[in-house]
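FW: tagging you since you asked about this chain on Friday. Here's the raw sequence from the shared folder, copied in full. Didn't touch anything.
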Amino acid sequence: MGWFKDKAGEALDLFTGKAEGYATLQDVHSAIKNTPIPEFYELELAEVIEVWVDEEDLPPIETGENIGNPDWSKYGWIKARLFYSSVNEKDYRIMKPMNTNIKEYPYPGEAVIAVQYVLGGEEEYYYDQKINFYNSVNTNSYPGFSKFLTHFTKDTVREDYKENLPTVADLGIRQLNVEEGDIAFNGRFGQSIRFGSNIKNVIKDDKIVDVNTGKEKSPNIIIRAGQGEVPTIKNKPVKEDINKDGSSLWMTTDQLVPLTHERSKVKDLDPKFRTDSSGKQIILNSDRIVFNSKKSDTFLYSTRDINLVSKNRIVLEGHDKVYLGTAPEQGKTTGFPSGDVPQIEPVLKGDQTMDLVDKLIDYLIEFSITMQSAKGSVVDFVVPVSGIKEGCMGLEGSLKLLKTRLNDPKSDIVKTG
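HL: got it, structure written out here
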């Protein structure tokens, strides 16, 4: 694995020669003096041919009770051709990832740093980071490059890659535009994690310092998936854009987050994302956000308000109970002593309540009509009761008007089941 090259850059074999007799001290001195000292390289580049991440890539287990099954212990290994040490085009080496926890899987055609160690009497090959050919986070693939540095071939025939391997060559996917001191993880497909801050003064296009920048002790973590900015300048990095990126999670401590959001009709409830830094905050933005608790509860706590604003519907669905206000202890809904827990009372159902009120009004109308013909008697003479008819007629008219307004108390927005 370790290899030598001469001063002209040509690869060399190790020192070899045929002895013609006992070497004298003068012979040794002359050999050392006249032999060019080669340069030794422990690390070597290797061109990736295959990455074992699919079940069909893995070699079968050769011994034991699981013989013939895929050997998952070799997941993430690669098949690669060394740039200088390979003896022919098909002289591939199988290499393990150097790191056990953080692994950067290459793409076929890319070059990685390879090294060989002898462990337990066996030679083991390992691969580490990719080589930066194009300064692109999306692809640094150069298929066949290892052939051009050898005497094998000068053609550009495509390597024998997997049939279902898509081409990765989107130069529109860019690395992040960062600031001094940042730590950035750039994904291959337009995702990133950046450990940064808001301590640097940002100069706006009008050459004026942005007053929302240059904040001391202002760390942030920004995670995004799906690059939203479409770059127009070749190789220019891109900034995270919480409005354009596919999905974003911004954790900030003293930073203006330029989120464009639907404003509430209640002015006091409108978050001031675009006017101040809002202090320490976490902001999620995506086309859909789902919170799911598989076995226990989900809690939303706030020392002030919790605002839910929707352009369409807000659905609160409780398969057992829905409590508005203070909920009782689990399993206890009655029997609380006065002043201990607020009384738990059911919410009226709008349609059914109005149906009962409608029936009550009908009964009263029927009663008032009957009372209009009420009469009294003096000895054997029937006479009308003074004022009964007029009063009943007035009550009848009022009740009929009231029947036309039974839908007024019903909310057009809040519905209950």
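FW: Residues 172-263+271-289 form one domain.
HL: agreed, and The two ends are 74 Å apart (CA to CA).
FW: great, closing this out.
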